[in-house]
Design a protein that fits this description.
Strand content: 5-15%
Oligomer: single chain
Order of helices and strands: EEEHEEEHHHHHHHHHHHHHHHH
Distance between the termini: 64 Å
Number of helices: 17
Bound molecules: carboxymethyl coenzyme *A
Helix content: 40-55%
Radius of gyration: 23 Å
Number of strands: 6
Largest sheet: 3 strands, antiparallel
Length: 428
Amino acid sequence: MSEKAILVVDGQQIELPIITGTEGERSLDISNLRSRTGLTTCDPSLGNTATCKSEITFIDGEKGILRYRGIPIEEFTENPNFIEVAWLLISGNLPSSEELAEFRDLLTANELLHEGLRHQFQHIPVEAPPMAILSATLSNMACFYPGFLSLDTPGTFNEAAARLISKVRTIAAYSYRRSQGLPVVYPDPSLRYCANLLHMMFSIPYQQYVITPEIEDAFNLIFILHADHEQNCSTATVRTVGSSRANLFASCAAGVSALWGPLHGGANVEVIGMLERIRAGGMSAEDCIAAAKQRDSKFRLFGFGHRVYKNYDPRAIILQQTCDRVFTQLKITDPLLDIARKLEELVLKDPYFVDRHLYPNVDFYSGILLRAMGIPTNMFTVCFAIGRLPGWIAHWKEQHDDPGSRITRPRQVYVGSGKRKYVPVEER
Ligand code: CMC
């Protein structure tokens, strides 16, 4: 028998069904509440609201569990292959070797940018933020590939998804080249996904960038760890925009904008800024922690805390281990890694953070790892976006294919002025 909850409103008993997810998580179904009682629910920032049913990613924030289509994130770390994970998220299953080869070919076939799109880079100021370029260029893809605005056949959807996943890397590399005043380097079809990105960013005419397997693996892993995270701010944005039946390019461009903020994907940049300030002697680790505890300040300890995880973020654990491995493999050191470890140690003993269950999140170590791989700070959030794109696409598709999906249109509790008269300007 299905479970129900009873709500008593104005002396009347209302039965509300309880929905149970695969892993036993329970949710009160209030979809008919307003029509039956006139009441809405008030949940600013949606901390208690499941906005959809989804089959893509499962998180248990109390236990620190993250699974893509049922597979624990830790299982992707052995021979990390971002493209395989992208396919898994979007299609629902791990690809067969034929499917993987076909997907790879489709990505290679779509790696070049339309020359019209490429020319636009020449008019962008050198100091333009790469996230602004990324969002604008993804949106602009709708101008250059109008055949993919309606995705009603599986063939067009797969091609649009491949175009986005492949070209996002080319756009990212071109935006970096632009910021350096360097000529663009075209993609090399003989290279795999991550190696090709490194090639387009760092090769220079007549000098091919040498890609080490350690760095290629670390890049695959970083992208995998960022690939999906259920209803986070940017994915919820993609779903909201997509719910109006806006096209996939426009929806993902909106996702990039949401990701940019320092409380979301932009936190990886803020973490490095914070660690740099500590290194430069501008503030100590203790000052930083004290500032983050000030209730009236906007300052946060970047790279710590999470809406869902009230335990270690499993992605942070993997990234911390990967940092150790890559630093040893490449025989490099970084004073910021030592500062990060010291900060983490202090935080994990501090009652403010302990009581609030604030642990390192994915952004705490990802920046240090990206730095070690030679990625400049202004490209960190772009790397997050490249990783997150398959997740956005999977969610857009899940919603698009759901016959019960409706436009996202929340309610509000109006607390403004009561009815009043318009006063002509000369009488004000
Ligand atoms: N520094 C200081 N205090 C914090 C922090 C932090 N990093 N995170 C949470 N708190 C406090 C918060 O002010 C609240 O205090 P109180 O109970 O006294 O009002 C308490 O801890 C509980 O916060 P919450 O409800 O768990 O936080 P939230 O869900 O509103 O925000 C967050 C989540 C990730 C935006 C927040 O933890 C934060 O700002 N962290 C720093 C930014 C960051 O690292 N973001 C990356 C998140 S992971 C990857 C991603 O999603 O992009």
